[in-house]
Amino acid sequence: MQYALKNGILLDGTAEMQAVAGKTVLVDGEKITDIVPTGTEPSGYSAIDLRGRYLMPGLINMHVHLAGNGKPQKKQRDNAALVKKIMATGLTRAVAYKMVRSFAKLELLSGVTTIRTVGGLGDFDTRLRDQIAAGRADGPRILAANEGISVPGGHMAGSVAAAARSTEEALDLLARAEAQHVDLVKLMVTGGVLDAKAKGVPGELKMPPEMICAVCEAAHRSGYTVAAHAESPEGVKAALRGGVDSIEHGAKPDDEMLALFKETGAFLCTTISPALPYALFNRSVSNASEVEQYNGNVVFEGIVACAKAALENGIPVVLGNDVGCPWITQYDFWRELFYFHKYVGVTNAFALHTATGRAADLAGIGAETGTVSPGKCADLIVTAENPLEDLRALRHVDLVLARGRLYDRPKFKVNQTVARELDRYLTD
Q: Could you tell me which residues come within 8 angstroms of residue 428 by beta carbon, excluding any fewer than 6 positions away?
């Protein structure tokens, strides 16, 4: 299909983006073919009159778990036991896969045209990636890690990560991921808020440094990048020394950590969204224990401080919302951009660039997507208001194009409890 998106205001996703009127974006099939002055469009294109709305690249969510819906929990659940049940039979696996497909579609309909999955159920993420790419399912472009690699008692072991009892087992899990044709590898280097047993120790180092090194070396030989869940200074440093390519979450930085980031060239994936409810909600709302709230605040402050220090020191930063955690839905990635602006102190334009052009470059797909440019995929969204003035404009997306496939006036059901509680934090 050929589209001419005209009478809109263009935000191109580059670091220097400004609102530009008077341009028509031409789309032929999956690609943007040209950007021409409005009124000079060639014949044969189906015109889409944007009527002064804002046209920009689709968002890129760099930290996603497709197996979760973000529903608040009254108490901690045994995720490993739940996943064991889900994956026990062909029927339950089919139901779970259908659920994962529906969650991916939610990402798309909310304006996210690319996701990077960093822990999932079995090989579901690569299967769905291929279905979407072939046009047999609705969803964003997926960069998939499938199951993460953890250790016994480690983060998400037995749920969206498999536990390796030795370096040899970790390398076997890497080989399994390679056979599933993943796009990247995920290591669960530290614990998290929910598995800490005492105040002040979230993100305890779980994975032996020698295991980190061995998996990174083998993954790099096979052409894969490695992402590491790390929520403590000790864990971040161990991951960086081991050779990972990205730190997911982050922790309170010091000079040694920043030097390691620079030395290795690793980037930081900031995830403010999942820490915020644990840190800032009243415990009667979050249902967090006193220890969980305390540790949630440690992680929240560490993530924000790490992002600030990274930007001050020229360390690349991208955004993910760790979707699937309690209170974090598959359609609310836009909130992460707002938190990045509010708590890290960046401009709206920088936040939007970080979640579009910058993310694409650091994910290795900058030649395909991330900016509104001729030759790139038609991964585009339209909003009624200008996100450069207020990032809350991204909450309501009027139109989505994903590799040229049009979704007009996308609609989805919103969890009103989640919206009500999180909306309290949408002030500058």
A: 341, 342
